Amino acid sequence: MVRAYSQEHTYKHPWERVTAASWRKFADPENKRTLSHILEVDTLNHRLDPSSGKLYTTRAITIHAPGPWFVRKIIGQDICHCVESTVVNAQSRSMQLATRNISLQKFIEVEEKIRYEPHPANPIDWTICKQETSIRIKPLSTLASMAEKIEQRCVDRFQQNSAKGREVMERICKYLEAESRGISLRS
User: Fold this and answer.
1) Per-residue pLDDT tens for 140-167?
2) 3-class secondary structure for 121-136?
3) Model pTM score
């Protein structure tokens, strides 16, 4: 069975600021507490296509393994490795991220897609974020009866982490806005 959900969030900040915040959200030490499930982020490659002007980036993300503690105990692993592929098209003002796990695939498959675009109601000042996530627990003989409950717990955890990510993005956007005005928000 696959659990899928989608969310939309409106950032009341311009697209350029929101996408700049997206790049910074894992790098800012202040966010480490809020995003404590993120252990490490490494850029594997990035390339600017001169003909289209698109930026392509691939990052490796190491996280605490999703799901309840007892599932991590059963599978014998606390961490999960993921790959995030990003395409930024500054000309059309879109940023698309696709993240999927590359470890633990015989137990769980997670795919997350995020798209940032100017908000149709206010394209100059607001940005809409559309997120789609699918989670599939692969039933094992010992977990078959619990797969559905585990998937729901994973969905709940991913939604909590998404809310934390939006909180971090909002904070970074406010810092970037203040920075652009020459104001410091840090004491």
Assistant:
1) 545 556 666 777 777 788 788 888 888 9
2) CCCCCCEEEEEEEEEE
3) 0.80
